[in-house]
């Protein structure tokens, strides 16, 4: 349904915003920050949190690749 599609787009935009925020706050250490978050969430058994942060990591990689190509 259209409600599910809107929710999926919203979640995707949230992951992009989170990736940008992590990159701005942590700069060159952003990947390490995300890896530590994933590790802590995995140890806590929070599978949804792990998936969320891996999605953020994917977008961060895409942002960094695009940034490197632009320079």
What is this entry, summarized?
By secondary structure, the protein is mainly alpha-helical.
As an assembly, this protein is: single chain
Count of beta strands: 0
Give the biggest beta sheet.
none
Category by helix and strand content = mainly alpha
Tally of DSSP helical segments? 3
**Beginning-to-end CA distance, first to last residue:** 41 Å
Quick one: overall form? flat
Order of helices and strands: HHH
**What fraction of residues sit in β-strands?**
under 5%
Q: Would you tell me the overall average pLDDT?
A: 94
Estimate the helix proportion, in percent: over 70%
Low-confidence stretches: none
Q: How large is the radius of gyration?
A: 13 Å
What are the defining features of this structure?
71 residues, mainly alpha, 3 helices, 89% helix
Question: What do these coordinates show?
Answer:
By secondary structure, this protein is mainly alpha-helical. The chain contains three helices and no strands. The protein has helices at residues 2-26, 30-43, 47-70. The longest helix has 25 residues, at 2-26. The protein is flat and about 40 Å long. The mean pLDDT is 94.
Describe the secondary-structure layout:
Layout: H1 2-26, H2 30-43, H3 47-70
Helix pairs in contact: 1-2, 1-3, 2-3
